Amino acid sequence: METMNIKSSLLCSVVIVWLAVCVDSQSDQSRVFMTARVGSSVVLPCEWKDTLSPSPHIEWRTFTETVFERLGEEHYEGEGYEGRVDVPEDKLKKGNCSLELKNVNAEDAGVYESHLVVNRVKRALSSKRVFVQSVELSVDESPEDRSFQRFVATDDAEINSPRLQIVVFSLFLYLFTLL
Q1: For 138-168, what is each residue's pLDDT tens digit?
Q2: What percent of the chain is modeled with pLDDT above 70?
Q3: CA-to-CA dists, residue 159 to 9, 27, 105, 165, 166, angstroms
Q4: Sheet containing 149-153, strands listed edge to edge, beginning at the edge strand earlier in sequence
Q5: What does UniProt give as the signal peptide span (predicted)?
Q6: For the segment 101-115, what is each residue's pLDDT rounded down to a tens digit?
Q7: Residue 72 contacts by C-beta under 8 Å, 6 or more apart in sequence?
Q8: How far apart are CA 94 and CA 56, in angstroms?
C-alpha cells in the first residue's frame, strides 16, 4: 500500500511538471529573442494580418512602462525613449507594427510587448488591448562591430518546441507507469 501511495505521488508530480512545461512553452511561442549592441539600431518585429481600421492604434510596452504608442499621426514616446523609437505610420497601415529603436543602450534590455488597441463596437467608450508580439531584447555592451544584430524566434528552436516536450514527457510518463 505504501509503494502505491509513493507511486501515485510521483505520478501526480510528473503530471504537474509536464503541464507546467507545456503551458510555459505555449506562452513563449510568439516570443522573439534578439540581441543588439550598445549604440546600434534594432527593429523589434511585429506584424498582423487583419487590418482593423484605416488608422490602427499600436502600443509597445515593457512590464513597467509604455515605450511607444501611435494612433494616426499622433504618437507618444516613453520617458528615456524620446527621439529613439518609432513605428512609421505608413508601415503600420500595411500591418507592419515593428518598433524601430535607435541608439540602443544597456537599459533597453528586457521584454517588450506590442498590442493593438481596439475600440469595442458595443461599448464605444471602452477599448481593449489585443496582444500581437513579445520580443526579448538583450544588449551586448562590447565595443565591437556596431552592425551586429540577430534574432531567433522560439518556433524555430527545436528544443523549445512544445511538441517535442510533450512527446518526451509523455514517454517519461508512460515508462513511469510501467514501474
Answers
A1: 999 986 554 444 554 444 333 333 444 554 5
A2: 58
A3: 28, 15, 30, 8, 11
A4: 74-77, 66-71, 57-61, 110-119, 127-140, 31-37, 149-153
A5: 1-25
A6: 999 999 999 999 999
A7: 55, 89
A8: 10
